[in-house]
Design goal:
This protein is mainly α and about 100 residues long. It has one domain. It contains 3 helices and no strands. Helix 1 packs antiparallel against helix 2 and helix 1 runs parallel beside helix 3. The protein starts with a helix and ends in a 9-residue tail after the last helix.
């Protein structure tokens, strides 16, 4: 059985991990899993905040914000890349430039 102090330490550690993963979500190409991890960790920490006070609550909040923003940003970037690839392929008229 965990003591109250151990539970608080784990809560603070998880909040800081959520914040770091949220920041790592901004890294191009590999940031998506970190953003998703920040959202997952933030949800688990929020459930446990009802049991005891979390001194690192602002870090959890910012981690979730960063994780959500990066997930939306990278999803939009992926959609734009795929859209431009498909429309560029289908709209290619194969005309050559002549001098």
């Amino acid at each position: 059985m965990k003591t109250d102090a151990v539970a608080k330490i784990e809560l603070i550690d998880s909040s800081m991990r959520c914040f770091v993963f949220g920041l790592l979500g901004f890294v191009p190409f590999i940031g998506v899993p970190f953003g998703i991890a920040a959202l997952c960790i933030g949800g688990r920490v929020r459930k446990r905040e009802n049991e005891c006070w979390n001194a690192a609550r602002p870090y959890r909040i910012w981690g979730v914000i960063f994780g959500g923003v990066t997930c939306v940003f990278w999803a939009a970037a992926a959609v734009l890349i795929v859209y431009n690839s498909v429309t560029g392929y289908w709209n290619n008229d194969n005309s050559s430039y002549s001098d």
